[in-house]
Amino acid sequence: MAGIYVHIPFCKTKCPYCDFFSVTRRGEESTFINALLGEISLQRNYLHQRKIRTLYFGGGTPSLLHLSHLKLIFDRICAAFNVVGDAEITIECNPDDVTPYFFRELRSIGFNRLSLGIQSFHEEELRVLGRRHTVKQNDLSIQQALQEGFKNISIDLIYGLPGSTSKSWKETLEMAFEYPFKHLSAYHLTIEPGTVFGDRLKKGELEEISEENSVAQFRKLIDYSGSKGFEHYELSSFALPGYYSRHNTGYWKQEPYLGLGPSAHSYNGNTRQWNVSHTRFYTDSLLKGQIPCKWEILTKRDHFNEYLMTRLRTHWGVDLAKISRKFGSGYRDYLLKAARPFLNNQYLKRKGNVLTLTNEGKFISDTIFREIFKEEQ
């Protein structure tokens, strides 16, 4: 099995915290669609005839595209690839872009899962984040999606915002869980260089919250979602049983996937490739029949480090026996030695042959990854 990701780069405005590739220019959609359709045809053999079990439209803002364009892309993918009948087919939507008609047409096209960019249930926090929608639009988008028959709904929330407190985060969680969504993606705000927030932080115009406050909000997230029956199956992902994101789980289990669109990444088990992060260069190249990408052949060490990073993010953890089989006992011994300080400090735990992060370890996962990655072959 494999997955396909489609990156739609268009946004009405650029959120001040976002470092994903996107553009706010309009009027290029038709040219982009033609280029994307060309890439689909050129890449039809990339996954070696594997069945496609997930299709994910992300961005950017996919819900900005005209429904006819979404249908055209969807139909071309289904014609070029073997998409299984019960495939999980997701689209990201902004609450202010959608209507009952839009949701109804999405279902008729074939979409069966929504990812709604809610982000917060506080008006002031939405303003700080530069979001275009309101709390009322959050409510309407969820209600309309439910009324139009979407049963598999995921929402995005952001915590760790400047000026936020454990109390304000608890209020957002309480308001969120009044709705019958099935999946929650919750991200701590990361201020990246080159973003508006990054520039404001550098100038002293923005202040990050304290680590103590961040940890308190993360613990509240884990405890509150757990009390509602949600399983914390990946660092930023929570779901009711049976509603894990099949697409993202494919990434974490290192299943092959094809990325379409500017900046999209692909992985076929042996190589990784990534498209140029430039819309015009992307379209110009594909209209000439060329895929504008770079690629690399993954080494044994690369595969090992990627296995650690993807699996340790999840509640399935790292299987020491699998490491011995796949990479050799030397890699297993290396990992146990590198992990020892984190096991001693209870940031990692071992049960049988499986290493997983503790709740304390989840918050410093980036540090743990850096320390246990193997630098030499």
Task: Describe the 3D structure.
The protein is an alpha/beta fold. The protein has 2 domains: 2-252, Aldolase class I (TIM Barrel, Alpha-Beta Barrel), CATH 3.20.20.70; 300-372, Arc Repressor Mutant, subunit A. The chain contains 15 helices and 15 strands. It has helices spanning 29-42, 67-80, 100-109, 123-128, 135-147, 166-176, 196-202, 211-227, 246-252, 279-287, 300-312, 320-327, 329-344, 359-363, 365-372, and strands at 2-8, 52-59, 83-93, 113-119, 152-159, 183-188, 231-234, 237-239, 257-260, 265-267, 271-275, 293-297, 318-319, 348-351, 354-357. A hairpin with a 3-residue loop joins strand 10 and strand 11 (271-275). The longest helix has 17 residues, at 211-227. The protein is globular, with a radius of gyration of 21 Å. The mean pLDDT is 95.
SSE topology:
Layout: E1 2-8, H1 29-42, E2 52-59, H2 67-80, E3 83-93, H3 100-109, E4 113-119, H4 123-128, H5 135-147, E5 152-159, H6 166-176, E6 183-188, H7 196-202, H8 211-227, E7 231-234, E8 237-239, H9 246-252, E9 257-260, E10 265-267, E11 271-275, H10 279-287, E12 293-297, H11 300-312, E13 318-319, H12 320-327, H13 329-344, E14 348-351, E15 354-357, H14 359-363, H15 365-372
Helix pairs in contact: 1-2, 1-10, 2-3, 6-8, 12-13
Describe this protein with a few key phrases.
377 residues, alpha/beta, TIM Barrel, Arc Repressor Mutant, subunit A, 9-stranded mixed sheet, 3-stranded antiparallel sheet, 15 helices
Distance between the termini: 30 Å
Q: How many alpha or pi helices?
A: 15
- Overall number of strands: 15
Radius of gyration: 21 Å
Mean pLDDT across all amino acids: 95
Shape verdict: globular
**CATH class membership of the largest domain:** Alpha Beta
Q: Assembly state here? A: single chain
